[in-house]
Design a protein that fits this description.
alpha+beta; Cytochrome p450; four-stranded mixed β-sheet; three-stranded antiparallel β-sheet; 22 helices; 11 strands; globular
């Protein structure tokens, strides 16, 4: 044979043994000699990363990890250098210890996408850079800023009600409107709100009853992050992957970024107004930027995506559980309508302080449909750490399974049931309550410590206001004949890959 004439047979044998033997040697090392070898987990996942990568690519990572944790416990090895954690102690062990080095994000997940010049606050794995940008941006989403932003939230939540009223009225005089995909309308609302807060310009999704072209592209952003990150586990493949990315894709990313830059430029020239950008503008004009122009563009794009998508996801999941549990829906509707005689009485202060069942429903929605089911992978700092009783060596990676903790029968009575009453004050004070022993501190959908979500005050304001106004104005029920959504079966690409939640609406008789 030609090969035999070029390469002696014994070198062919050596090459074959090396090619076949290297993976076997790596697998043996990972299974028996790696610092994580004593952490329980399936052999295939522990020996090779490819099984974890496939689980992420297929969107089944949460369901797969659920099966693994049921079999192996709260700390499971899911890759040669990576574990998955579903124990509530992870919040105190890894995120709330004072004086310890922070657990940075796994940098392999956060390379700048081709075509973009920087990473923003969510994408950076550099703790110092994250702290610098967070210091500048977080006050724009704090309680004081929120008080001045309430008129913007009121405007778009009322516009949502108005647009849905028009839809019901268009159904040829029928009391009940045609089936409506509430996921779509909630996305319209949250993106319009964030567009106004960031740019002083709405995306006009509600007004046009469709997604703005820029917003439509954003829906694939989280999936693109996952697909773009996983090749980084194999440097040779990552190099080829980036080289082979179509020029049209890179151009699309540049256009998305330029869209943000143009809107920010107009916003910087606008008059002072009480939105999220006003604080940032004042800081930058005072000579204390804390952020470059490229970083600001990417950060704002990340904020619009994360801030809008996650809020709409929580509301969609909560509405889905409410229409599947009509008695809970009836109790909540009665509370809202008894406390607020007119729509103008529905304010953020009133909802926060005088709507206990609403807040219980939303807490239960956060438990059962957390907007981010699993925190992005974190890296163990120098010296290693003990987390949840397991020693993790330096540079080991761990995932925090928010969704799984929220449904763990060790922490919750009837964890798979939608029970808002578990969050009412009497549930934690009355020993006779079936939920007296629920471990509520296990549920941390916004994370904790210095890396907690700085937009949670805004998120709480939006979800309270939007849900309250919807149920104040409409009777709502699941649409017959439409596929019902089982939230636990949705695929996850960092965020849920949501399906339509079809409902029917009827304008309440005494709503004016």
């Amino acid at each position: 044979m030609f090969v035999d004439n070029i390469i002696p047979w014994h070198w062919q044998v050596i090459a074959g043994v090396a090619i076949l033997g290297y993976p076997c040697i790596c697998a043996l090392y990972n299974l028996y000699f790696h610092p994580l070898s004593k952490v329980p987990g399936p052999a295939l996942w522990s020996a090779f990363r490819i099984r974890y990568v496939w689980s992420q690519l297929s969107g089944n990572i949460i369901r797969d990890c659920n099966d693994l944790h049921k079999k192996y416990g709260h700390v499971v090895r899911v890759a040669p250098d990576q574990v998955s954690i579903s124990r509530r102690d992870v919040w105190s062990d890894a995120f709330q210890k004072q004086g310890e080095a922070q657990y940075p994000k796994d940098p392999r997940w956060w390379d700048p996408l081709p075509g973009l010049a920087a990473v923003g606050i969510f994408g950076t794995a550099d703790p110092d850079k994250h702290a610098r940008i967070r210091k500048l941006i977080s006050p724009a989403f704090g309680p004081r800023a929120l008080a001045s932003q309430e008129p913007i939230l009121q405007q778009y939540s009322s516009l949502l009600v108005s647009r849905l009223r028009a839809l019901v009225a268009s159904n040829c005089g029928q009391k009940w409107g045609k089936p409506v995909d509430v996921v779509e309308w909630l996305n319209f609302t949250t993106f319009d709100i964030f567009g106004d807060l960031a740019f002083a310009e709405s995306f006009e999704c509600l007004s046009n009853s469709q997604y703005h072209a820029w917003v439509a592209v954003l829906f694939n952003h989280a999936k693109a992050v996952v697909y773009g990150a996983l090749p980084n586990y194999y440097p040779w493949f990552a190099y080829v992957f980036k080289k082979m990315m179509p020029a049209s894709m890179k151009q699309l990313l540049r256009e998305q970024n330029q869209f943000i830059a143009d809107r920010l430029d107009r916003r910087f020239k606008a008059l002072d107004r009480p939105d999220a950008m006003s604080h940032i503008i004042k800081q930058m004009e005072a000579g204390n930027p804390g952020i470059s122009d490229d970083e600001l563009c990417i950060t704002v794009m990340e904020l619009v995506t994360a801030g809008s998508e996650t809020t709409a996801t929580l509301l969609s999941g909560t509405v889905n559980y409410l229409v599947s549990n009509p008695e809970k829906l009836r109790i909540l509707t009665a509370e809202i309508r008894s406390r607020f005689k007119e729509e103008k009485e529905i304010t953020l202060d009133a909802l926060r302080n005088d709507a206990p069942y609403l807040n219980a429903v939303l807490n239960e929605g956060l438990r059962m449909a957390p907007p981010v089911p699993c925190l992005p992978p974190r890296k163990v700092p120098a010296g290693g750490r003990t987390v949840c009783g397991t020693y993790l060596p330096q540079d080991a990676i761990f995932d925090v399974q928010i969704y799984l903790m929220n449904r763990d029968p060790e922490y919750w009575h009837s964890p798979e049931s939608f029970r808002p009453e578990r969050w009412l004050p009497e549930a934690s004070t009355n020993p006779k309550s079936p939920h007296f022993n629920d471990q509520r501190q296990a549920c941390q959908p916004f994370s904790v410590g210095g890396k907690s979500c700085f937009g949670q005050h805004l998120a709480w304001a939006e979800i309270r206001l939007i849900l309250a106004k919807l149920l104040w104005a409409f009777d709502i029920e699941a649409a017959a004949g439409k596929e019902k959504v089982a939230w636990e079966e949705l695929k996850v690409y960092m965020f849920y890959d949501k399906k339509p939640v079809w409902v029917r609406l009827k304008v309440r008789n005494d709503s004016g």
